């Protein structure tokens, strides 16, 4: 089955700096890669996703890149703000058949004001 | 996005008892998923629930411990049976509605504490 590894486990940045979180996956058949943000005591919220037919996707300050050959994908947050502080999870799945997500271990991002 | 509700939002239970968690979606969906999130950990899939068929369980999870019902296309229940303190977790249901792209949305979770 799919295995997703995520690094780093914690990340502390100064407000305004960029943050990068990286994930690798094991199943070359996976073709859908979402990122979730989870604030304390809240449900995971989808913030951006990417499919295997594109290499990069951007939404304002957030971008995701995908390297299918190397089987890794990354989340980039620019101009970080204190409200970006949360736990971020990457995930992977095949969007047909099983469709359940396999999650990475999570990254706790702390943005220092 | 899908609107997903769960009941109860939290509960404190005694070991050896069982708790049934309900998940309601605001529209008909094919697949519903149940995840467990242990304190400070990531999300782990327990099982996938399809309407009209037996749930499919992941390695390490068994039907006797986590029976699931899926009586219709908007509702599912997960029971945590014969609970022990190790079952203390947040249990989340989710669905992707089968949309192209499979964006998956989560319920608010049920925080279970077993004494």
How are the elements arranged and paired?
The complex is a heterodimer of chains A (113) and B (115).
Chain A: E1 4-7, E2 10-14, E3 19-25, E4 32-38, E5 45-51, E6 56-59, E7 62-67, E8 72-77, E9 86-92, E10 102-103, E11 107-112
Parallel strand pairs in A: 2-11
Antiparallel strand pairs in A: 1-3, 3-8, 4-5, 4-9, 6-7, 7-8, 9-10, 9-11
Chain B: E1 4-7, E2 10-13, E3 19-25, E4 31-37, E5 43-50, E6 56-57, E7 68-72, E8 75-80, E9 89-95, E10 105-106, E11 110-114
Parallel strand pairs in B: 2-11
Antiparallel strand pairs in B: 1-3, 3-8, 4-5, 4-9, 5-6, 7-8, 9-10, 9-11
Explain how this protein is built:
The complex is a heterodimer of chains A (113) and B (115). Chain A has strands at 4-7, 10-14, 19-25, 32-38, 45-51, 56-59, 62-67, 72-77, 86-92, 102-103, 107-112. Chain A is mainly β. Chain B is globular and about 35 Å long. In chain B, a hairpin with a 2-residue loop joins strand 7 and strand 8 (75-80). By secondary structure, chain B is mainly β. In chain B, the strands form 2 sheets. In chain B, strands 2, 4, 5, 6, 9, 10 and 11 form a 7-stranded mixed sheet that branches. Chain B is built from no helices and 11 strands. The chains are: A mainly beta (113), B mainly beta (115).
Average predicted local confidence, pLDDT of chain B: 93
* Largest sheet descriptor of chain A: 6 strands, mixed
Largest interface, counted with CB-CB under 8 A?
A-B, 22 and 21 residues
* Portion in beta strands of chain A: over 45%
* Helix-strand pattern of chain A: EEEEEEEEEEE
Number of helices of chain B: 0
Keywords:
heterodimer; A: 113 residues; mainly beta; five-stranded antiparallel beta sheet; 11 strands; B: 115 residues; seven-stranded mixed beta sheet
């Amino acid at each position: 089955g799919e295995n997703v590894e995520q690094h780093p486990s914690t990340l502390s940045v100064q407000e305004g700096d960029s943050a990068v979180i990286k994930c690798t996956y094991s199943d070359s058949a996976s073709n859908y890669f979402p990122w979730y943000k989870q604030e304390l005591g809240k449900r995971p919220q989808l913030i951006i996703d990417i499919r295997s037919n594109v290499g990069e996707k951007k939404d304002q300050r957030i971008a995701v890149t995908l390297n299918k050959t190397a089987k890794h994908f990354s989340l980039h947050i620019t101009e970080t703000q204190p409200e970006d502080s949360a736990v971020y999870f990457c995930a992977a799945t095949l969007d047909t058949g099983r469709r359940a997500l396999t999650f990475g271990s999570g990254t706790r991002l702390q943005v220092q004001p | 996005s899908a609107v997903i509700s769960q009941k109860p939002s939290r509960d404190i239970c005694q070991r050896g008892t069982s708790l049934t968690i309900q998940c309601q979606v605001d529209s008909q969906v094919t697949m519903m998923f149940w995840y467990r999130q242990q304190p400070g950990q990531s999300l782990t899939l327990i099982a996938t629930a399809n309407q009209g068929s037996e749930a499919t369980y992941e390695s390490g999870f068994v039907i006797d411990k986590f029976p699931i019902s899926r009586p219709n296309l908007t509702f599912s229940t997960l029971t945590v049976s014969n609970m022990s303190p190790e079952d203390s977790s947040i249990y989340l249901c989710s669905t992707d509605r089968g949309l192209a792209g499979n964006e998956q949305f989560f319920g608010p979770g049920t925080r279970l504490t077993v004494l």
